[in-house]
Design brief:
This protein is mainly alpha-helical. It is 63% helix and 0% strand. The chain contains ten helices and no strands. Helix 1 packs across helix 4. It is flat, with a radius of gyration of 21 Å. The N and C termini lie far apart (60 Å).
Length: 219
């Protein structure tokens, strides 16, 4: 037995049952050992959760010479996809910066993509943070619409249909008008790739404008 085996077993439990199912006893049972045997490899459940959060992160996409915008589009989509595939990752606080070597590799690749654009290191980190936040919120939306781990998927009544029933045009006039104009569309459409790309393009358009402004300032 080693830390990798323990972490892998804990990840399997979290993927099936959420973080609530991850206990030192449940991990020990899956491995066929006593609970106390785990403490020779991991000091506490909190330490195990830290190891899980980094171990489940895949390698980031390789740049392969792609322009910064093309690479960050791929980077953000891949970030969303692995988060949506492991809903328990979203249970952690989004305010905690990446600390494990795998998570830090994602940050490193995003910064490398922006190298040579004229942006300083602080701006590049803020951009990576904004894109990570967008990936996280998109993954959370996808998970919320299809149901939490261990729960049945939501019923056929979409969010927009609920809003149409409960909103009035006095308290929320702009939102009321948007809902009745069909702005939201069916709930299942919110997680289509075209909708994800639309929001991502808004962010990247801002990055592109910032790069152009920095280029003009240095000219």
């Amino acid at each position: 037995m080693d830390l990798d085996r323990i972490t892998a077993a804990a990840i399997e439990i979290a993927d099936a049952d959420g973080l609530a199912g991850v206990r030192m006893s449940s991990v020990a049972t899956r491995l066929g050992v006593s609970t106390m045997a785990l403490y020779g490899y991991v000091g506490s459940k909190e330490d195990l959760l830290i190891a899980m959060a980094d171990a489940v992160v895949p390698a980031p996409p390789e740049p392969d010479g792609a322009p910064w915008r093309e690479y960050l589009t791929t980077w953000t989509r891949a970030n969303r996809d692995f988060l949506a595939g492991h809903p328990w990752l979203l249970s952690g606080s989004p305010a905690v910066p990446p600390t494990g070597p795998r998570a830090l590799r994602w940050l490193d690749r995003a910064l490398a993509a922006l190298d040579g654009t004229g942006l300083d290191a602080g701006e590049a980190i803020n951009i990576a943070t904004a894109l990570s936040g967008y990936a996280r919120s998109s993954a959370a939306l996808a998970i919320g619409l299809r149901g939490a781990v261990g729960e049945a998927p939501p019923g056929p009544v979409g969010y927009a249909e609920v809003l149409a029933r409960v909103l009035d045009d006095r308290g929320h006039p702009a939102l009321h008008a948007a809902v009745h104009a069909g702005a939201f569309g069916p709930a299942e459409q919110w997680v289509e790739d075209s909708d994800f790309t639309f929001g991502l393009d808004l962010l990247l358009d801002g990055v592109q404008a910032l790069i152009a402004r920095r280029s003009g300032e240095s000219a």
